[in-house]
Predict the 3D structure of the following.
Amino acid sequence: KWYIGTLMADGSILLIYLGGIRAMGTQWARVTAELHRPGKDMVKGCTPARFVRGGGRVLQCGSARIDRDKLYFETPELSGQLTFNPRYPPTQIKEALLEDGDRKIQWYVEIPDADVEGRITWPGGYQDIAGRGFRDRVYYDMLPWRPHFKELRWGRAITENHAAIWMEGQTPKGFFRATWHNGNIYASDQPLVQMQDMRTISRSDVVTLSGLHLGLARPLLSKLSGHPIEIKQAGKAVLHSEVGVCIIGDLRWGEEL
């Protein structure tokens, strides 16, 4: 799955998700785009994807395409074209988030921090995009009924001269934290970013997303995976005495939406 985002100075956040899951010999894939603006309703678009081809710097996922530093996506409700100008090279902050024998959950940061520009459109509206963005890829081949995370949190913050990424969680093997700051892995156990004025922008079911059209497999996959939900928040960030913006995600298991 590819996670692509752009954080803007006014607090707006554009999030795009490409990818899907394979289970019981069947693949489900989708393209989802969300525009979150302070004080306004979310604009969201979602469409199924029949295939996912490629990887790395070139990818086709249904109606969305990554072509090196450019992104094109189209859904009935929200579409756009964006250009990412990376400030730092790709990285892998932690070799594997979790391992179970030969199976792993791996997190690749293809674009840690970039200057982003472009335009998105929706029925009756449009917005020019200018901000700081990222692109992550998460590869997951763990068995869903095996114990994975007890809790998992991730976040990103940007200011004029700084960018930070972090992920932390509790697994059956213990606690971990992985942090990146301006091109370097940050080893301290202390939080790097101070967050203020946080607002909840979404609360969603991780497995049974409507865009996947899982049909009868929906309740089974949800039960096997422990009913994970993700709560995303956005707000102000203080990073090395500079004020900017941030987004965080909190994954929880066994709760109701």
Summary: The radius of gyration is 18 Å. The mean pLDDT is 83. Residues 78 and 122 are 5 Å apart (CA to CA). The chain has one helix and 19 strands.
